[in-house]
Amino acid sequence: MKHTDPRDFAPHSDDIHTVSPEEYVQLLHPQGVIGNPAVLIKNSEKPSQQFTRCPDGIVACLHALLDRTSFISLNRFKGTRCNSGLVSLNSLYVDLDYHKDPSWRAEGEEDVQAAVADHLLMRGVSEPSFYLRTGRGLAAIWLIHSMPPAALSRWQAAIRALMDLFAPFGSDRTCNDPSRVFRIPGTRNEKSGRVVRVSGGNCQRQDFDVLADQIFAAVGRPTRSELTERRKQRQDREPGSQTMPRGLTQAERFEQILKDLEAYRIY
């Protein structure tokens, strides 16, 4: 009897190998967004270059970037690419260095990506916006509706949960910084000689809270609503958690406290 392969139930994405570098940048950073993406260019014989520029400006110079080892940020900044310059959280991502893991080292890119898709499906996590084959590994990228820097701690908690979720695939534990950059599709990975390309995904943006709850549930952590309910229950159980009425005199406050203590004694 042939056993059912869970892959048979995986969502079959439209093949988006034809997504051009220009379209990729425009999907990452649409017109009219807050802040600018950052570009990093690595040079073998001189210091690296980096700059922030509006999305249209990056698209305009993309032809020059594709001939070099070029990277683009998935979040957006004002000024330099650093946490203090962060103005918009735009995505969640995980970088899988599966070539470093003995159990995946001999597998082909297609097999690893199919296994990653199965892993997400079986744990109830939405399909990424993009799978990016980086030349030596695989990145999964989820575009989200933009969030302000004030949400950074929540964003980082979701990133850490993603890394735990993909630990079996060699998730890069250093990939937890909003200033992280990824290779631009169409460039060549100088270490492997392979061209970087988009390979699947739904090209959609998601609500951060919904996606984060899926990720937390997948790794056995409480969702945001569950944490809120736990805090409420804890407050209800704590003695003296009731709010003291306002406008009472000192004598009336002590009388109220005495009544509460007497009620606890009788109970």
CATH fold name of the largest domain, please? Alpha-Beta Plaits
Number of strands: 10
The average pLDDT score comes to 87
Indicate the low-confidence ranges by residue numbers.
Answer: 1-16
3D structure, described in words:
The chain has 267 residues and is of the alpha+beta class. It has 2 domains: 6-218, 2-Layer Sandwich (Alpha-Beta Plaits), CATH 3.30.70.1790; 224-266, no CATH class. The chain has helices spanning 21-28, 55-60, 62-65, 109-122, 152-165, 208-218, 224-237, 250-266, and strands spanning 38-42, 49-52, 69-73, 76-77, 86-96, 130-133, 138-147, 181-183, 197-198, 205-206. The strands form 2 sheets. Strands 4, 5, 6, 7, 9 and 10 form a 6-stranded mixed sheet that branches.
Which helices and strands occur, and which strands form pairs?
Elements: H1 21-28, E1 38-42, E2 49-52, H2 55-60, H3 62-65, E3 69-73, E4 76-77, E5 86-96, H4 109-122, E6 130-133, E7 138-147, H5 152-165, E8 181-183, E9 197-198, E10 205-206, H6 208-218, H7 224-237, H8 250-266
